[in-house]
Amino acid sequence: MAKIDEIKEILNTLRIAMSIGFGILVIVIGSLIKRYDSGIADSIFWSGVLFSFCLLVFIVLIIRKISFKTKEIKDL
Length: 76
Hints:
It contains two helices and no strands. The chain has helices at about 5-35, 45-75. The longest helix has about 35 residues, at about 5-35. The chain starts with a helix and ends with a helix.
């Protein structure tokens, strides 16, 4: 497999991971809003908030990796 094909495959995988991450983030935040509106701010709520922030960091790292790989293709 050529180097450019390998990088393109990695990019596609990262894009899929980013899409899945955004989907999970939307579901978690929707559930958190539902719990907040119900007045339930228990440990599950705060765990969800922490998980949301961790997921945001994960998504940002994926976006940075996508940017790096895109620049790497440009240099080839």
